[in-house]
């Protein structure tokens, strides 16, 4: 029997969602407690490979970087997340969807475990 | 004998460098050919865990997202890369260094293989 691990093949391009916004906190462990439930929900988003949560208390900024397996899922998530942040009163949200360049990203170990 | 895989432990925080800028290309396979040598050089940067290369021909933007094992390496790389891009005539470079929130990023599979 042959088991195919599609995530290890990268035959289709992957898509990166990049979000950041001004934030007065919470940061660190308080941030982790405040958004733990949301993180479990995000882990189940359609097409999500992974998300890294980003924070910079000194600069007053926070955000996230996400890898998605399809462009449609990436854009749909960005639209949904931007609306959610706006509903919480977050302003000046900067969101981008990028294609991941597979050949270059492989050289720099970015797709070793995608 | 005990072998310690420090990268799998995440006892120290990781640092994300986020860079993007307006770009008229090259994109896709031409981009991969143009920057293959640079990618091999970046793969050897001090403290680099991985880099994902990002591109959006429709929006006319490109960039990169990097994971580093120390804040000092992250900031030093951002300074160096920004100077390199500027020397090539790239303007409006947007660069950020963020701490990765470990607890939340673990929930969303972002540190499974960091």
TrEMBL record, chains A, B:
InterPro entries: Dimeric_a/b-barrel (IPR011008), YdhR (IPR014910)
Domain of life of the native organism: Bacteria
Keyword vocabulary terms for this entry: Monooxygenase, Oxidoreductase
Transmembrane segments: none
Oxidoreductase listed as a keyword: yes
SUPFAM superfamilies according to UniProt: Dimeric alpha+beta barrel
GO molecular function terms listed in the Swiss-Prot or TrEMBL record: monooxygenase activity
PANTHER family documented for this protein: MONOOXYGENASE YDHR-RELATED (PTHR39169:SF1), PTHR39169
Record's protein name: Monooxygenase
């Amino acid at each position: 029997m042959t088991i195919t691990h599609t995530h290890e093949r990268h035959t289709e391009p992957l898509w990166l969602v990049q979000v950041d916004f001004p934030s007065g906190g919470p940061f660190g462990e308080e941030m982790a407690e405040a958004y733990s439930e949301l993180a479990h929900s995000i882990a189940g988003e359609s097409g999500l490979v992974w998300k890294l949560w980003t924070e910079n208390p000194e600069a007053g900024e926070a955000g996230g970087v996400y890898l998605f397996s399809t462009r449609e899922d990436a854009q749909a998530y960005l639209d949904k997340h931007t609306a959610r942040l706006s509903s919480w009163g977050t302003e000046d949200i900067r969101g981008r969807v990028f294609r991941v360049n597979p050949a270059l990203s492989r050289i720099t170990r970015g797709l070793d475990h995608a």
